[in-house]
Amino acid sequence: MTEPVFLAYPFDAAFSEAVRIGDTLYLSGHIGDDDDGNLASGFEAEVTQMLANVKASLARFELGLEALISVRVMLTDMRQLERFNTLFAACFEAKPLPICSAFGVTQLALNAAIEIECVARL
Fold first, then answer.
1. 53: closest CA among 75, 23, 24, 32?
2. How far is CA 68 from CA 1, 43, 91, 92, in A?
3. What is the CATH number of the domain that holds 47?
4. Do residues 49 and 56 make contact, with C-beta atoms less than 8 angstroms apart?
5. What is the pLDDT of residue 55?
6. What is the mean pLDDT of each run of 10 residues along the chain (122 residues)?
7. Confidence at residue 26, expressed as pLDDT on a 0 to 100 scale
8. C-alpha dist (Å) from residue 95 to 33, 68, 89, 91
9. Which of 14, 25, 112, 117 could form a disulfide with 108 if both were Cys (CB 3.0 to 4.6 A apart)?
10. What does DSSP say about strands 99-104 and 24-30: parallel, antiparallel, or unpaired?
11. How far, in Å, CA of 35 to CA of 11, rounded?
């Protein structure tokens, strides 16, 4: 069995940014905050920043969004799911798109409106 490889965040966090097991990469949840911990203003801006954060995590492994195979999306307002789906799909130049599960939640870190967890293939 392949030993896990843990990638720490470049800042002090109580969890790893990513864990690689074999050819699979598991990313921690990402929200739409910037490097200073400030949450983007408005749903679309949060999604844009959140996806930029995911891209940055993937880039540490020389991967892009096309490597994603599965995403889990948590929303504080499920009425925003269709808008997220539109914004997310627009980030991909080709299909297939990753599989997705969406969950309604009461609250997220920094009072974010959306959070995403991702699994990618190496």
1. 32
2. 23, 22, 12, 10
3. 3.30.1330.40
4. no
5. 96
6. 66 78 94 93 98 95 96 98 96 91 96 98 94
7. 96
8. 28, 11, 9, 11
9. 112
10. unpaired
11. 9
pLDDT reported for residue 111 = 96
Give, for 51, the enclosing helix (H) or strand (E). helix 43-59
CB 27 within 8 A of CB 18: yes
Q: Specify the number of domains making up the chain.
A: 1
Q: How far is CA 41 from CA 37, 64, 69, 113, 122, in A?
A: 12, 25, 28, 10, 33
Dihedral angle computed from the Cα positions of residues 21, 24, 28 and 32, in that order, rounded to the nearest 10 degrees:
160
Angstrom CA distances, 20 to 6, 24, 42, 61, stand at: 6, 6, 32, 10
Dist. CA 64–CA 79, nearest whole Å:
28
Whether pTM > 0.85 for this model: the answer is: yes
The domain containing residue 51 runs over which residues? 5-121
Beta bridge partners of 73: 102, 116
**Gap between the Cα atoms of 86 and 97, Å rounded:** 12
Residue pLDDT, tens place only, 9-38:
555 667 788 899 999 999 999 999 998 889
